[in-house]
Amino acid sequence: MTDKTYREIHHTDKNNYDYITITNDENKVRIYTLKNGLKVFLAQNFDAPKIQTFIPVRTGSNNDPFDNTGLAHYLEHMMFKGTSKIGTHNWEKEKVLIEKISDLYEEHKAEQNPELKKEIYQKIDEISQEASQYAIANEYDKAISSLGATGTNAHTWFDETVYKNNIPNNELEKWLKVEKERFSEIVLRLFHTELESVYEEFNRAQDNDSRLVNYELMDALFPTHPNGQQTTLGNPEHLKNPSMKAIHKYFDEYYVPNNYAIVLVGDLDFEKTVVLVDEYFGEIPYKELPKKDLIIEKPLTEIVERTVKSPTTPRLQLAWRTDSYGTREAMLADITANILSNRGEAGLLDLNINQTQKMLFAQAYSLGLKQYGYFSVVAVPKENQTLSEAKEMILEQIELLKKGDFPDWILPAIINDFKLQRLKGLETAEGLATNLYDTYIKGRTWEEELSEMDEYAAFTKQDIIEFANVFFKDNYVIINKEKGVNDQLLRVENPGITPIKINREAQSEFLQEILADKTEDIKPEFIDYQKEIKTDEIQNKKVSFVENKYNEIAQVYFIFPFGSDHDRELGISTQVLQYLGTEKFSPEDLKKEFFKIGISNDFKTSSDQLTISLSGLESNLEKGISLLQNWMHEVKPDQEIYNQFVETILENREAVKKDKNRIMTALTTYTKLGKNSRFLDTISKEELENAKVEEFTDRMKKLFGFPYQIFFYGKDFESFKNYIPNYIVSEDFTVSEPKKYPEQETTGKVYFTDYDMVQMEMSKVGKSRNVNPENFGTINVFNEYFGRGLSSIVFQEIRESKSLAYSAYVSYSPNSELNHPDYITTYIGTQPDKLQIAVDTMSDLMNKLPEVPVQFENAKNSALKQIASARITRTNIFFNTLRLKKLGINYDFRKDIYHQIENLKFNDVKDFYQAEIKPIDFNTAIIGKKENLNMNAVNEMGSFQEVSREDIFGY
Q1: Cα gap 892→160, rounded to integer Å
Q2: What are phi and psi of 708, to 5 degrees?
Q3: Contacts of 332 (CB under 8 A, 6+ apart)
Q4: Radius of gyration of the chain (CA)
Q5: Which of 504, 510, 764, 879 is most exposed by smallest CB count within 10 Å?
Q6: CB atoms within 10 A of CB 332
Q7: Residues 631 and 612 sit within 8 Å (Cβ to Cβ)
Q8: Closest to 98 in 3D by CA, of 84, 79, 119, 112
Q9: β pairing state of 8-12 and 749-754
Q10: DSSP E strand stretches across 255-402
Q11: Cα–Cα distance between 78 and 515 in angstroms, integer?
């Protein structure tokens, strides 16, 4: 954790490729620049024979044409549709029809008469039908999944579009071949069905009130800059009136090698890798980028206040505009945000607002963008507080900053925490690769990124005070999010797209070549848990150890074999503890003490287990254990604090009942488990209000007198074994029997909860037989083939063919514990007027398993490659043994799964489907606006019952 000096060193490798490294870079990143301007970031990570790949393009929604917003995001979707080689079995014929469709879209965009626009759209629909007979849906994903890739995805944001895959390292060349083809040209096939999917994504965003607040905030902060004037999803009118020509122009201008990078981190050879990258991507020509005028915002000189409404709990958000990421102002804003709110919960807002329960919640953060950024505080007041009162409480804390009324120790503690988080972030291939692509997007050098910690460390308390006094003026934006009806929701008419033909069996010559090009298989490695985990018994406690081979961060876990099923008040007891101190330390002082030594604590209560963990530098871990146990043994009951806690709990319960996602989760659980589930076995308002705080603190004081085991992840087990006996007390208590909760049958019931939203969300849940680990291989391939992923049958039919939803899946989930049932879940989120066809389509798919031999083989081979290239590392080595124990297994069961899949035939999957899935009756959960509910569709699914939020939450 010592400070180091970083500087660039130039080298030439054995193949005469020039590259840069940075002195003292522990990850030994190499940065190459090819002749066409392509940046190649390479780093080694030998956790597994895999490579995390990112292709970050330095363009996003900020470069959308002002009359075609949403274009960059839509282009990102279309990058998965293939090229003249990928995704077609007759390009010459398809090309002519796509050109016709493109011309019709230009007519459609120019036409002002709504009726004539509909006629043009009908022509587009007709020709799209004809063109679809030559298209092969999701062939890019089939090619990529044939490599055994995972995490296939992409995202678009202000200044970036990033394409992601995690691949087995023996498939690097094939990956490069596929991606080089994808980045060489774009073909806008199956355009109008994907457009409808993008609109469904827009609808989902409308039902997310965080976006509602954020859009208003950004618009006010950036009245002329694209940061605030162009959302990533785009203007709905622009989405409905796209231009294929504009998308081609954008691709040609920005998707050029001098404007994107290849980031590869994993088990790779530097020299061989850069030669391969050059072989494929080096031939794509350099191209000058369009000239862009820098948009300079005028300084904010007044308070800009706006109000938005939605059904959720009221809150407010304040924001001050900052300079760009990496600037002195942005860095000072980042430190200042952490003085208010930090991971140790030892900031001014953490201690003065959250810890004292003066509001439901308050948090500060800063966000640095490529150009500009902002500092923000979010506050959720209590029910008896106004938004204005909440604002004043926030401003009071900012005044403390200006006066320097914060402890001297907090600045070095924050810097140490920054370094700790960077250490954690860079230890994985994905973490390092993410940092590299983000550095590239923001136009920074790797040297600047590594030197950042030293720059942070150089700031003084006086710097913070001076910054706060200059920065925090009446020059901010405030968004009041009130509870009410959102009058900005757009109810969109279903355009009536005719389902297109999905050519499931067809393969392009390109895909055939990829599949025929066999690489030497990676041999799976199965872990010997007995060898990797050292165990000892210390004062009658089982102590397990896994060595940390990566850094100085250690973790200790105290694992108790009981949870909320054994004691329904256990979870509440651990929550109450967070607000209480001891004779020696106030609650606020305890937070400070943990943060000073850089140790974080966490309490997790599940139905059958309580886990208390500490994490931080190994050198400080014993101090953390001592502090934790002193806190728990000596916790001081305080009825007044407890009463405030109860008030906060009850208000949070009300807030949760207004949140759409939490409502859907509760409704789905109710649909699955019924009225008598553990989810509904909550402590009532009356019980909470009538309880004495000692009922909860006594539990905590006694806790370490119960049976538990210890798991230590670090470097020095001998040292740990020497000091841990000092913190083990005698075992005086036994574990009570758990309460048994019924697992009801699913019998064709439909449960509906009313919520004001644009979409309808529907989830079907079916109870299957008890878990059987011998089915795990079959389940793995079934999910890959049928229900999940971009090339699954369900995704192709629901989204690609019929444009019914942005998100749809079917998932068979084996139970994690023997003698308990598996469940199968289907999900779809769609416009209300599409619900009937969505229900019918899903029913048809579920009634008869489609047989597509090519797709089955691809799913099977992909599953085998994923297991072969996966490695179990770090704390997962230990926690996997706990998971397997619940299934009666004491070895690496992936070995059995691998062999199951190796020998799997389609008929095995079909037999499993016929025996385990087809006979199932489903219960159905639906959330949406009641007036939009299609009762004909609902009645086909079973007996209908509207349930209240009180029914599904249990309070």
Answers
A1: 40
A2: -165, 165
A3: 459, 463, 464, 467, 471
A4: 29
A5: 879
A6: 23
A7: no
A8: 84
A9: unpaired
A10: 261-266, 304-310, 315-322, 361-368, 373-380
A11: 23
- Residue 868: phi and psi, rounded to 5, are -60, -35
Of 498-502, 503-507, 887-891, 900-904, minimum mean pLDDT range: 498-502
Residue with tokens 């109860």: 646
Instruction: Name the E strands within 58-160.
Output: 150-156
Question: Distance (Å, rounded) from C-alpha 954 to C-alpha 676?
Answer: 10
Question: What are the φ/ψ torsions at residue 32 (nearest 5 degrees)?
Answer: -100, 150
Can you give the pLDDT at residue 1?
A: 45
What is the strand order of the sheet 610-617 is part of? 534-538, 541-547, 709-714, 553-560, 610-617, 600-605
- φ/ψ region of 871 (left if φ > 0, alpha if ψ in -120 to 50, else beta) reads beta
Q: Which structure tokens are listed for 541?
A: 């406690």
What are the Cα distances from residue 632, in Å, to 336, 344, 642? 32, 18, 16
Cα–Cα distance measured from residue 952 to residue 251, given in angstroms and rounded to the nearest whole number? 48
What token pair was written down for 388?
Answer: 């204005």
* Beta-strand runs (E) in 49-175: 50-57, 150-156, 161-168
Residue with tokens 């899949």: 901
Q: How far is CA 493 from CA 110, 199, 231, 490, 496, in A?
A: 20, 11, 22, 10, 9
pLDDT at 791 over 60: yes
Give tens-digit pLDDT for 372-402: 999 999 999 999 999 999 999 999 999 999 9
Strand 749-754 to 943-946 pairing:
parallel
Question: Using one digit for the tens of pLDDT, what is the confidence trace for 305-353?
Answer: 999 999 999 999 999 999 999 999 999 999 999 999 999 899 999 999 9
How are beta strands 8-12 and 18-22 bridged, if at all?
antiparallel
d(CA 513, CA 511): 5
- pTM score of the predicted model: 0.96
Report the relative pairing of strands 50-57 and 161-168 from DSSP bridges.
Answer: antiparallel
DSSP labels for 804-864? --S-EEEEEE--SSTTSEEEEEEEEEE-GGGHHHHHHHHHHHHHS----HHHHHHHHHHHH
Chain-centroid distance of CA 508 in Å reads: 33
Pairing of strands 808-813, 541-547: unpaired
Q: How far apart are CA 624 and CA 601, in angstroms?
A: 8
Adjacent-strand bridge partners of 656: none
Helix (H, G, I), strand (E, B) or coil at 433: helix
Q: Are 10 and 450 in contact (CB under 8 A)?
A: no
Query: How far is the C-alpha of 548 from the C-alpha of 874, rounded, in Å?
Result: 7
Q: Which of 655, 576, 609 is nearest to 953 (CA)?
A: 655
208-224 pLDDT tens trace: 889 999 999 999 999 99
**Is pLDDT of 67 > 90?**
yes
According to DSSP, the β-strands at 261-266 and 161-168 are: unpaired
In 311-421, which ranges are E strands?
A: 315-322, 361-368, 373-380
Mean pLDDT of 853-857: 94
Give the pLDDT confidence of 860-889 residue by residue, as tens digits: 999 999 999 999 999 999 999 999 999 999
Q: Which residue has the tokens 């913070």?
A: 464
Helix (H), strand (E) at residue 924 = strand 922-928
Terminal CA-CA length for the chain: 49
Q: At what angle do helices 410-426 and 446-458 cross, to 10 degrees?
A: 160
For position 559, what pLDDT does the model report?
Answer: 98
Alpha carbon 385 to its chain's center: 33
Per-residue confidence (pLDDT) for residue 183, from 0 to 100: 98
Please give the pLDDT value at position 203.
85
Interacting residues of 643 by C-beta distance below 8 A, sequence separation 6+? none
Is the pLDDT at 663 greater than 70, yes or no? yes
